[in-house]
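Quick start: read one record
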Amino acid sequence: KMTAMPTEIDLRGMDAVEAICVLDRYLDEAMRAKLSTVRIIHGKGTGVLRAAVQQDLKKNKFVKKFRLGQYGEGEDGVTIAEFADFLGLWRKPAEAAERIWLTFSGKTAIM
């Protein structure tokens, strides 16, 4: 039985080290599930968790951009992250597989 990949993760109550470990695993799974954006709930609090989350997102090569939530999304208590599609994962599976093969085989192609 297959379960749907959640589009958000709640890190509230975790310390920064635990939250980043959980976040990295979640981001990896979200990419594999071909989600284009995710909502990361870190809470407002002191801002330590928000800062750790955003530092981690800056280093993640699969994250194209991120921003704080807007009104109705959770505002400063959440970060919205958008994944980069530099391997064409949102395309048709055959096109994505070919692009990945070309990337790892060292060949270049314009697609």
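DSSP finds three helices and four strands in the chain.
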